[in-house]
Amino acid sequence: MDDYTWITLRQQPERKNQAAGWFHEKWGVPMEAYRVCMEDYLNRKTEYGWYLCLEGNKIVGGLGVIDNDFHDRRDLTPNVCAVYTEEKYRGQGIAGRLLEMVVDDLKAKGISPLYLLTDHIGFYERYGWKFLCMVQGDGEPKLSRMYIHE
Asked: Is the Cβ–Cβ distance between 121 and 84 less than 8 Å?
């Protein structure tokens, strides 16, 4: 873990386009949608940020925070989104450390609880997240799991 650099996008705003492209590549959401959210964060229109793990100049893990992660429970906000670690780097605690970063950062800003939409069972619980309820993802045929971190 000492070989990695852990940052918020505000610490290195020049990475905005790199980060938007990286998240787009992982999730298929339009790059422009990521850029808009990142610009709002960088311009302090929101405290909902973007968190990255770097190895040298390369992004190897990341996540963001948005109002709603495309589900029908608009009251459950903000949502941690786009949690991803490059396959080669999995199993090293990168996602866990990013999750701890976002929780600590937003709690320090008075933002709690946080929510997270996922189909994973057992992973997020290791980092203090608790299952809250099932929600309907926009355009999804099956319900997904909603977690909360208080």
From this structure: no
Per-residue pLDDT, averaged over 92-111, amounts to 97
The larger pLDDT score, comparing residue 139 to residue 90, is at: 90
Total-model pTM? 0.94
Indicate whether 15 pLDDT > 90: yes
Q: How far is CA 49 from CA 119, 128, 138, 147, in A?
A: 23, 20, 23, 19
